[in-house]
Amino acid sequence: MRVEHRSLFRGRDHGRVRHLFVSARHRRAGLGRMLIETVIDRARHHFAALNTRAPQEAFGFYARLGFTHVEGEEFVTHRMVFAKGD
Predict the structure, then answer these.
(1) Is 15 helix (H, G, I), strand (E, B) or coil?
(2) Rounded Cα–Cα distance for residues 31 and 62 (Å)
(3) Cβ atoms of residues 81 and 67 within 8 Å
């Protein structure tokens, strides 16, 4: 898993989750949720938003965690925007 810093995206700093996968035999045990919640907790202190490009089968996972589905952006399928002061 990597979290990258991306700036200059619409004038704000955006983080990006890349290469986060849980092997099939370990899915549905809360590991993915734990990893992403940790990333979100740390990212909110450094970024205005957090982006990811998820495979179709993970769309529901990111939606349940509070990410919004994004259309029309080649490298972003989901985004979580952090409120000021988070």
Answers:
(1) strand
(2) 13
(3) no
Beta strands 12-18; 49-52: pairing state: parallel
pLDDT at 12: 60
Give the position of tokens 């004038």: 11
**Model pLDDT for residues 13-45, shown as the tens digit of each residue:** 889 998 888 898 998 999 999 999 999 999 999
Does this model's pTM top 0.85? My answer is: no
- Burial of 35 from C-beta contacts in 10 A (0-12 / 13-18 / 19+): middle
Residue 27 confidence (pLDDT): 87
- Quote the tokens at residue 12: 């704000």
Beta-bridge partner residues of 50? 15, 80
